[in-house]
Amino acid sequence: MRFCSLGSGSGGNATIVEASDGSGVSRVAIDCGFSLREFELRLARAGLCCDELDAIFVTHEHGDHIGCAVSLARRHGIALWMSRGTWRAIGAPEADGLLHFARDGEAVALGRLQLTPYTVPHDAMEPLQLRCSDGASHLGVLTDAGSITPHLLAHLQGCQALLLECNHDAQMLAQSRYPASLKARIGGRLGHLSNDTAAQILASCAHAGLQHLVAAHLSEQNNSPEQARAALARACGAAPDEIVVADPAAGFGWLDIR
Q1: Which residues does residue 255 pair with via DSSP β-bridges, in sequence order?
Q2: Taking the CB of residue 41, how many other CB atoms lie within 10 A of it?
Q3: 3-class DSSP state for residue 5?
Q4: How far apart are CA 210 and CA 232, in angstroms?
Q5: Residue 12 domain boundaries
Q6: Order of strands across the sheet with 55-57?
Q7: What's 81's domain CATH number?
Q8: pLDDT (tens digit per residue) in 117-128
Q9: Residues in a beta bridge with 27
Q10: What are 20-67's pLDDT values in tens digits?
Q11: Taking Cα atoms as reference points, which of 60, 62, 67, 61 lies closest to residue 43?
């Protein structure tokens, strides 16, 4: 199994997860938070085209995550997965028979991949994050959550790779020029994970078999790669340069999970 990012931040998010065996490959795009043209360009940068995607999974309805997902699915005939709450939040569109509803804890089989959605605290209608597996390896994906829950932690245990939101440094957010209402939303229980909160999650999930750790969804105004890396490194005892930071424009290249 391997995964890469096409970009991660307030301007748009998309992660590609792939599993292969001797008979073929299965691929899913987790979020498509860009215009259709931009998504196609970024996907090509990863060496793929849209027709090579087997499914799209939308975590929630915010524009930097859902982006072109519906139009992409329609244009290329790709299966589209999301929660019923997300579907309602975007106006309950028709999807030409491609739409499938995901539910907390109900595994989704997509060829060689299995996706297990889990609920998170975020200011969306029915947000879901994912644990992805090929049967041997596991990737935990967690962005757009405001606080820690036992349910969330349970779904991230034992993963060989973790993609964790490190949206903001709490002090930088407090000192920023953002209006008080926006600061309260971002830093609130249903907002986004700070570096310190992400580090607490990591401390509860880190183990000797963790191969890849990615800091994602960093705020360009209220965080820095150095601060995110330092917080996560302290939590798991890794060297800061061992931690990958997802770039808003470039994402990150393919990471293999063995």
Answers
A1: 3
A2: 12
A3: strand
A4: 13
A5: 2-256
A6: 99-101, 79-82, 55-57, 24-30, 12-21, 2-9, 252-256
A7: 3.60.15.10
A8: 999 999 999 999
A9: 18
A10: 998 999 999 999 999 999 999 999 999 999 999 999 999 999 999 999
A11: 67
